Amino acid sequence: MSNYNIEKNNPNYVDGRSLKTYFCKKCHKKISNYQHKYCPICQVFNQEIKISKKILIKLYVLKTWSSVKIGEYLGYSKKPILRLLKKYNIHIRTRSENQSLKVGKKHPLWKGNILREYFRFNDNLKEKIRNRDNRECQMCFNKVKNLDVHHIDFNRKNISLKNLVTLCEQCHYELHRIRNDWKVECQK
After folding, report:
1. Which residues contact 123 (CB under 8 A, 6 or more apart)?
2. Model-level pTM?
3. Which of 12, 46, 132, 182 is most enclosed, with most CB atoms within 10 A?
4. What is the DSSP secondary-structure string of 116-178?
5. 22-23 and 30-31 as β-strands: parallel, antiparallel, unpaired?
6. How far apart are CA 142 and CA 61, in angstroms?
7. DSSP per position, 1-61
8. Is 113 helix (H, G, I), strand (E, B) or coil?
């Protein structure tokens, strides 16, 4: 029989703490280290976050950052930020409210005024080009119902009338296959 059941003879004995079981003060789960008051999960939730209400309002309300983005910026997870928002009585946005904030420049895929320029190339402009070209394909000269309007220089931003031409679907498809030849053909 070994003498390890006596505390002072146990090699793991340190100030009487190794044989004692310690429990989390919040969830009462068994924890291994006597130096901690909380288990790792509760420790995250009990973090003392020192973020002022003024900073939270600036980031969450004025800059419309998400709680995740604020957490990443300040070095915390999402949950403590949400708890602070509740504590300071700041309205927590719903998912749909967050989606409505992602419009225009605030949308993650925003690339300047490309959309605004693209929408000038609308059905009215296409109809104007089709009428100018007598509603016939300018390559095969067939009068077909479904006519496409093609950008001669393949640049969608260039919507000048000289750059647009009416083509049937077949010719339009072929044209994109032999793209480089068409540029030479049209510039003659």
Report:
1. none
2. 0.37
3. 182
4. HHHTTS-HHHHHHHHHHTTTS-TTT----SSEEEEETTS-TT---GGGEEEEEHHHHHHHHHT
5. antiparallel
6. 59
7. --GGGSGGG-TT-STT-SSS-EE-TTT--EES-TT-SS-HHHHHHT------HHHHIIIII
8. coil
- Give me the mean pLDDT over the 146-153 stretch: 88
Contacts of 158 by beta carbon, 8 Å cutoff, 6+ apart: 151
The answer to whether 175 and 167 have CB atoms below 8 angstroms apart is: yes
> Under a CB-based contact definition with an 8 Å cutoff, are residues 164 and 149 in contact?
yes
Q: How confident is the model at residue 26 (pLDDT cuts 50, 70, 90)?
A: confident
Contact of 140 with 171, CB cutoff 8 Å:
yes
The reported pLDDT for the residue numbered 10 is 58
